[in-house]
Amino acid sequence: MKVLLLSCSTGGGHDSAAHAIGEKLTEKNIDWTMLDPIKLSSESFSKKVNNLYINVVNNNPNLFKGAYKFAEMYGSLKIKSPIYAINKLFAKKLEKYIEDNNINIAIATHLYPAEILTSIKKKNQNIHFIAVATDYTSIPFWEETNPDYFVIPSKDLMNEFTSKGIKEDKLLPLGIPVSPRFNSTTSKQSARKLLNIDTKKPIILIMTGSMGFGNTESIIDKILEKYNNEVNVIIICGNNKEMKQNLENKYKQENVIIEGFINNIPLYMDASNIILTKPGGLTSTETAVKNILTIFTNPIPGCENHNAKFFEDRNMAYVSTNDDDTLKYIDILLTDKTLGKKMKTNQSKFINKNSTNDIVEFILKEYS
User: Fold this and answer.
1) Could you give the angle at which helices 281-290 and 303-313 cross, rounded to 10 degrees?
2) Residue 299 carries which DSSP code?
């Protein structure tokens, strides 16, 4: 059996979901490959799409918000979008790749490859693929894709997806796939020793996403002003080298630790008491699987607002819109152990920690 995992470079979460499935396939000794299908036709175009996304999100979030709302309205027209028309251009190269490499099943963790595969499937019924939603909402244009099955984050979202015209018998509410590494746990004390961090002080972990999104300096200043040297603050800047350099230039104290892109996020989560993060679909799921007390800040307008609301409505996280609220929630979570325990209980109740394994088991059962 050969599996093709397809993602796109707009944000790291989609890639992480695909890699998570790949890790589990490796455990099962299943042959798999991962690629960005747009790069098959034009690596430069793929890079331009990625750079445009990053620039708009970081520099003009209101523009992204407007575009997202427009896309939601466009979806209600029930006609193929310009997004579909553009992605259709990459169908020929991907179809040839699938045929040349004897792929049995493709898994798309991003809308764009799902659009490309839908275009191929219209002419070639031998193409089989599964789409995987990586946000806690039906984002615009999922409804114009035609996978064999559609993995969605929760059964609580079934009505939302069917209301967009997606058939219920295609929906698999198995959850968002995260790396199997998030399912193992290292004790706080051991994790801190491995990371060479003070084992006694509470740790507040600030994650800015793969792109290093948001103004972190303001909240760091307020945390240090309120707690002084009583807490450790760790900031993960992702691929944003400029943010990392600026923070390193400003914060010289021992209790502020600044990291760039790292491969051991699960260990940092194990070491921490509280995480402040933007509510990306993957990161949100990872925090819940890890059972870490969570405060969502700086959502990218659009799907991340839906992610935050999904978690807030089920008491799995706090959602903050300003620094004062963030400080208030930090204080609550550091002092009220009962509320913290309830948050962790709800994370375990509403999030499938075995999603990645369940998805792979379904693939093996359906396509082997």
Assistant:
1) 30
2) P
